Model the fold of this input.
Amino acid sequence: MGDQKFQHKKYSTPRHPWEAARIEQEREILERYGLKNKKELWKSLSILDSFRTQARTLEGKMRYQDEYSMQQFKNMIRRLQRFNILNEGATLDDVLSLKIDDILERRLQTLVFKMKLAATMKQARQLITHGEISLGGRRVTIPGLMVEASLEPTLSYDPDSPLVDELHPLRQAMLKSNKETGGEKEVPAEATGEENEDAAKNEIKEPAKEGEN
Done:
């Protein structure tokens, strides 16, 4: 069973760590989604691999109309539906076609930025770790949390956060930036990101003590 003090890793590292093409691809993904390090990327890859592995295992069994395997497949599709990764009626091919972006798009950090609660991905991470974001009526401090579709409408600033005030300097700066960019492009860090983050640090209370994912 192992000691609880020494938990198993929830991810696996690349077999060939020095592949230039893979390193460049990982760097681009880290930058696009504002990930802290490659460990966060590898955790998401492990989630994706678990779905793919289960799909490959069930593929052969379902050819023989195995009822237990078919029920497992339905349960897997329901779980993917719950996180808005796949739609109803998805097939095994749809599961095998999933990409890492499908997983990363469901992270709390990504959704905070997509819903314009932050000006940049980096800022979205800061707001979460400082306890400024609420999900399902509860404060959350884990940027890598996978958000269920049913909870997505409840994503907002925490009621105790100073950012609830629409006149907060940070929100005013984001509103101005969204108008200038048409609300479609990420605001450049040199334009608002770092300045807004400095303003947030002055207004935000001390960071929450919970660990990050």
In short: The chain is about 50% helix and 5% strand. The mean pLDDT is 83. The beta strands are 133-135, 138-140, 156-157. The first strand starts at residue 133 and ends at 135.
